[in-house]
Structure formats: structure tokens, C-alpha cells
Design goal:
about 200 residues; two-stranded antiparallel sheet
Length: about 200
């Protein structure tokens, strides 16, 4: 049986080692993370009612690299940028209306997803164990789809929400999870534990 660790209180994999860096480094990481998230939003396949983007890839990767706290803060900062009018959401969209429309549930799920993947990465579900990294990314994508679909169901009904807001994104979630795990595995320093 596979030994799946859950007890580590300190990150076991952090190639960026942000937890031990100064506040200035962490603020810089948040800025760079929001830029990465914004760029991922421009890689888009238009679909209705929700487009396919690389956002969940970026969200899960930010969580895995930054850890659950700083990852969630970075993703929340990016959402605030979008809400106040910066063109950082899917396809360069901006404005608070996206948080109350069909995409709102997915957007609100993103910080939760980043925190979940970061928490798992800190406990060994990371680039040192590629299958666990894939599982963490997949759980993050699944959480986003479930939460987003629940929101969408309130607007268009459960059957329509599952048909248009969940099922079309399953294959993409699998592919983005595999890409995220491969990215973690390819990063230098993955075999080294983070500095306390």
C-alpha cells in the first residue's frame, strides 16, 4: 500500500522557498503570480456559458509552488484586480459582473483550489512524488468544477449546469493536472526539502 503523508507541518517541497523569504520577496511573488494568472486567462477556447482557459492550470501550480497561504493570497489578489477593472480574467475580461454571472462560482473557487493544492503539496503531494502531484492537481480541478457547477446550477438548473459547466471540462482538467504535475517534476530543487 502507498504511504500517503498528511502529517508534515512544514513544506516538504518548495522550489521557490517563499516561506523563508522576506516580506518583499513574498510581495514580489504575489505580483508575479498575479501576472502569471492573468496571462493564463488569455489562453482561451470560447465556450458557453463558461470558456475553457489555462486558469486552473495556473491556479493549481501557484498553490503547489507558493504553499496554501501565499497561494490563496496571490489568487485572491488576482481576483481583486479583475473585480476592480484590470483585464486579467478570461480573455481579458474585467469587472465585478463576472463574479455574479455564470463564471462566479469558478472564480470564487480558485483561492480554495489553490489552498487545497498548496496544502497537499506541503504534505508531500508534490514534484517529489509525481503521481501524488497529479492527484493533488486533479483534486484541485475537480473542486473547481464542483463548486463552479453548483453556482451555475442556481442560475440554469442542475442538469444544464452539469451538461455545460462540468462535463466539457473533465478532459481538460485531466490534461492540465498532468501538465501541472510534469511542471512540478521538472523544476530544479525538487528533491531538496524547504528551509525551515
Amino acid at each position: 500500500m502507498t504511504d500517503v503523508p498528511f502529517s508534515s507541518s512544514k513544506p516538504s517541497f518548495s522550489p521557490l522557498r517563499l516561506q523563508g523569504r522576506s516580506l518583499a520577496w513574498q510581495v514580489g511573488a504575489v505580483v508575479l503570480g498575479t501576472l502569471f494568472l492573468a496571462l493564463s486567462s488569455y489562453i482561451e477556447v470560447p465556450m458557453l456559458p463558461v470558456p475553457v482557459t489555462m486558469q486552473t492550470f495556473a491556479v493549481t501550480l501557484i498553490g503547489a509552488l507558493y504553499g496554501w497561504r501565499l497561494g490563496a493570497v496571490t489568487i485572491a489578489a488576482w481576483l481583486v484586480e479583475g473585480a476592480v477593472g484590470f483585464p486579467v480574467l478570461a480573455g481579458g475580461a474585467a469587472g465585478v459582473q463576472h463574479f455574479v454571472g455564470p463564471t462566479g462560482g469558478y472564480l470564487f473557487a480558485f483561492p480554495i483550489v489553490g489552498a487545497l493544492v498548496g496544502w497537499l503539496a506541503e504534505r508531500g503531494w508534490n514534484g517529489n512524488r509525481v503521481m501524488l502531484a497529479f492527484a493533488a492537481m486533479l483534486l484541485g480541478n475537480l473542486a473547481c468544477l464542483v463548486l463552479g457547477t453548483m453556482w451555475l446550477a442556481i442560475m440554469i438548473g442542475a442538469e444544464q449546469a452539469i451538461t455545460f459547466g462540468f462535463l466539457p471540462f473533465i478532459v481538460g482538467g485531466l490534461l492540465k493536472s498532468a501538465l501541472g504535475a510534469a511542471t512540478l517534476m521538472a523544476l530544479p530543487g525538487r528533491a531538496k526539502p524547504a528551509n525551515p
